[in-house]
# Entry
Amino acid sequence: MTVALPKPQLPIDIDSIKGFLADDEGTALYHYALEASRLGPCLEIGSYCGKSTVYLGSACQQNGAVLFALDHHRGSEEHQLGEEYHDPDLYDNGVQLMDSFRTFRTTLRKAKLEETVVPVVSSSAVAARQWATPLGMVFIDGGHSEEAAQTDYRSWARFIKPGGILAIHDIFPNPADGGQAPYNIWKLAKASGLFDELPTINTLGLFRRR
Ligand code: MG
# Structure
């Protein structure tokens, strides 16, 4: 049995933000971040246009905490020109690359989260190279290639403080439903002995650091 969490009051119409996060998943992110941001800053990998950022950032704001929003803003594999989820509005014709950063900044401004969210415009691996700050929560929603997912997990899960939260988006135990890379790192986390598994919400896998 699962108890439905109350929907958070958000500073912006969440449906106006492009993205691939379901309402129940966003609500769960908000509630876990509300708790975890008391432990330390939170970090998300894969901000895109800022949908999850608004849920997580609004919770961090309540506690005067900070959300690091990490994304190279060049799109994941499926966002590239000619791919299934390509969005021409997010394409920079000048450099002929995806660029979701401009839209992301607009979202932050509209949501009044510029004093809470620290955008980190970088690949996950480069941002992690000199990182040293323990984190209250890590939300992994980056690239869906096996390499990208593994890099995100190995780079960031180790910074979660005891009692902190690891969330992983797009968990599809049945390969017919979706790519397996996020599920593979979910299994790594489960097998690591470092985390207690929490109930999965829709496709959002959740753990608490022991
Ligand atoms: Mg996702």
